[in-house]
Amino acid sequence: MDSLLYYSPVVIVVLVFLIQQRIVVTPEQLERKHREILSDIEKRFVSLNSYKDLKSQFSEIKDKIDKIYDCLIISK
């Protein structure tokens, strides 16, 4: 018990330093940062479903252009 009382000021100072330097965060702070990161990601990147839809649309457009090209070549 005496050793705990002897080292307690040092432990308190170390904990205060860690909290002040934001090395240790609370779950609330972590959740807030997580939400910020998610919102940034939504602004900057496209979802996988949207990407797949766009890719399929490009494929359809390419097929249509190929058909038009074939029709033009055949008609000459």
Fold and architecture overview:
- The protein is mainly alpha-helical.
- The chain contains 3 helices and no strands.
- The model has no long low-confidence stretch (mean pLDDT 90).
List the helices and strands and how they pair.
Elements lengths: L1 H19 L6 H18 L3 H28 L1
Shape: rod-shaped
Percent range for helical residues?
over 70%
Instruction: Sketch the major β-sheet.
Output: none
Q: How much is the average pLDDT?
A: 90
* C-alpha end-to-end distance: 100 Å
Q: Write the H/E string, N to C.
A: HHH
Unreliable segments of 5+ consecutive residues: none
Structural Rg: 30 Å
Please give the count of helices: 3
**DSSP, total strands:** 0
Approximately what portion of the residues adopt beta-strand conformation?
under 5%
State the secondary-structure class. mainly alpha
Fill in the keyword field for this structure:
mainly alpha; 76 residues; 3 helices; 86% helix
